[in-house]
Amino acid sequence: MIFSGVILSALLTLLLCDCAQSRRVECKTDCCSFVEGFPLRLRELRSAYKEIQKFYESNDDLEPLLNEDIKHNINSPYGCHVMNEILHFYLETILPTALQKNPLKHSTTPIDSIGNIFQELKRDMVKCKRYFSCQNPFEVNSLKNSYEKMKEKGVYKAMGELDLLFRYIEQYLASKRVKH
Questions:
Q1: Mean pLDDT (whole number) for 76-93
Q2: How far is Cα 23 from Cα 75, in angstroms, rounded to an integer?
Q3: Are 116 and 91 in contact (CB under 8 A)?
Q4: 3-state secondary structure 122-166
Q5: Which H helix or E strand runs over 18?
Q6: CB-based burial of residue 117 (10 Å sphere; 0-12 exposed, 13-18 middle, 19+ buried)?
Q7: For residues 36 and 171, what is the distance between their CA atoms, to the nearest angstrom?
Q8: Which region is the signal sequence (predicted)?
Q9: Which of 20, 102, 110, 151 is most exposed, with minimal Cβ within 10 Å?
Q10: How far apart are CA 60 and CA 63, in angstroms?
Q11: Are 118 and 92 in contact (CB under 8 A)?
């Protein structure tokens, strides 16, 4: 069940924007703390990904996997289901395949780190389902079908777009932060 120059530029912009910065909020629930603490996890994700990003982006010459439809679905009233499905897809398919096909033996640690944070994120998303006011479920089959059509290059595409997935996750969780 349950996530290039232009992308790099967008990533740098997000790192500098207010939504990526941690701010103090008095949380009374674990779910609020999870959402408010996400910028720290996001920095950890981006740091781990930076170690392997060039390899995956240099092997990616395919159309986007994480397209505008995914972004739209993440920002919809059923975004928590979308996040859950995409995280599941990355945890069960993408990251294990990346580890298997990994010619850069030193990069298993960043992939493991991303997987561990995704695992925690998925657990917390499920635990906080009510906090996110989830509605209709997301159907991840179109994402999986696109990935399968890419055959062996699909893992490069999916791993090459992790920064985009990080941004989608960040935008979704930032939209759930306590407003002042």
A1: 89
A2: 22
A3: no
A4: HHHHHHCCCCCCCCCCCCCHHHHHHHHHCHHHHHHHHHHCHHHHH
A5: none
A6: middle
A7: 13
A8: 1-22
A9: 151
A10: 9
A11: no
Joined together, the tokens standing for residue 66 give: 């994480």
Tokens of 126: 């499920």
Q: Side chain identity at 153, as an amino acid letter?
A: K
CB 43 within 8 A of CB 112: no
Other Cβ atoms closer than 10 A to 4: 15
Sign of CA dihedral 62, 68, 96, 53: positive
Residue 49 confidence class, pLDDT cut points 50, 70, 90? very high
Q: Which domains does the chain have, with CATH numbers?
A: 5-175 (1.20.1250.10)
Using a 10 angstrom Cβ sphere, with 0-12 exposed, 13-18 middle and 19 or more buried, the burial of residue 100 is: exposed
Report the predicted TM-score, pTM, of the whole model to 2 decimal places. 0.65
Tokens in use for 113? 């780190």
Q: What pLDDT, in 10s, does the model give residues 96-147?
A: 999 888 766 666 689 999 999 999 999 998 888 888 777 656 677 878 888 9
Read off the tokens for 86.
């995409």
